[in-house]
Amino acid sequence: MAQNYYQKEIETMPVEEIKKLQTEKLIKQVKHVYEDVPYYRDLMDKKGVKPEDVKGIEDLHKLPFLSKADLRDAYPYGLLGSPLKDCVRIHSTSGTTGKRVVAFYTQHDVDLWDDCCARAIVAAGGTNEDVCQVAYGYGLFTGGMGLHGGSHKVGCLTLPMSSGNTERQIQFMNDLSATIICCTPSYAAYIAESLKESGMTPDRIPLKAGIFGAEPWTEEMRRNIEKDLGIKAYDIYGLTETSGPGVAFECCEQTGMHINEDHFIAEIIDPDTGEVLPEGEKGELVFTALDKEAFPLLRYRTRDICVLSRKKCSCGRTLIKMAKPMGRTDDMLIIRGVNVFPSQIETVLLNEGYQPNYQIIVDRVKNNDTFDVNVEMNPDQFTDTVSGITSLEKQLANAMKLMLGINPAVHLVPPKSIARSEGKAVRVIDKRNLH
Length: 435
Ligand code: ADP
Ligand code: ZN
Fold this sequence. Notes:
Elements: H1 8-11, H2 15-36, H3 38-47, H4 68-73, E1 87-92, E2 102-106, H5 107-123, E3 131-134, H6 142-154, E4 157-159, H7 166-175, E5 180-183, H8 185-197, E6 209-213, H9 219-229, E7 232-239, E8 244-250, E9 257-259, E10 264-269, E11 283-289, E12 300-306, E13 308-309, E14 321-322, E15 333-335, E16 338-340, H10 342-351, E17 358-365, E18 368-376, H11 386-404, E19 409-413, E20 428-430
Parallel strand pairs: 3-4, 3-5, 5-6, 6-7, 17-20, 18-19
Antiparallel strand pairs: 1-2, 7-8, 8-9, 9-14, 10-11, 11-12, 13-14, 15-16, 17-18
Bound molecules: adenosine-5'-diphosphate and zinc ion.
Zinc ion is lined by residues 251, 253, 258, 313, 315, 317.
């Protein structure tokens, strides 16, 4: 497929030029933050760094980190970089891992964010001839408004569905011939499941592409969604603190997401020591926003674990790529001393022919961790005998033990008995109260 770009000059800019651009913007941004954000100025003063010490991206490491704890500390206005009269919007995190944080936007911030999302839509093959169904939640969550803005910029006919009401999603998708759908991967899987049940086959669904993000998902899940909807499924990444989705997006190669480096500098650090790691090493992703006015975060620790690569991409983009995040540092469960990521369980389920409808329940009984995984049976297994089901449970538990090194208690539960999510899926229930 011939690759189109939304902002070709930037997306294919030689690396040296991107770095030069980043340097120019960083110097300005550090000055802006030091002057206008007292909270960060204090952090810089404590570290003994002055704006003049940052002469380019090679000095980035001198700056202090910002963490989610800082954002909560500074809630709500402490990190504001522009007068409130210049702000036009507020968004908030989904609160997956604790108290929400709020982010502010000037009109300029919204414009640049919309551009980032437009790049993602164009990279997924979108043009002004497409009908783009936005089924991310609208509201404080950034998913809906972000892709909505991007869709407008591309000139797609935008269907602002928000999430939920799956029957209506399917009806509008068909009646109005939606060609692109944007939502969380778990909601895409749910829509695919509902379509199947209604007897629709992929060839009768008008969609050609999906832009899915806001939560971790595996390659196996991608393949299932692509098969069931008859589409190409593209990943998109972002977080409220950096505006929202569109910080990075996937191209036709589908091997990681290009980071919009004209607006963000990405670093990978060792989450324990804070040391910057060389390209290609796995660690915590840190972002510095270069253009954001109202919420200008420098060296923000995302807690997402991933790897960066500048390997040449066949799409022609020169922007650095990030791998699919492997989960968050705080997503990782430590069960009986072993690190467990929900994505590992998902991989096993999909390999063994199950749907990614599962819930992990961890508890502590008499100082011992209990580890249960509820998994929905496939409809054809529902009629199996009790002993048949027990042996399927054992088989699945063994496969998980091989992947994780510890043994979960697997429980096959009836199809559709685990609550479906229209936004981010709730995969883990940790009852141990360890925090
Ligand atoms: P919350 O931290 O409350 O979930 P956000 O709604 O801002 O707040 O979500 C941002 C987080 O969502 C990211 O830090 C990351 O962990 C996750 N995320 C976003 N996009 C992706 C993606 N494509 N793949 C994996 N995780 C993602
Ligand atoms: Zn590419």
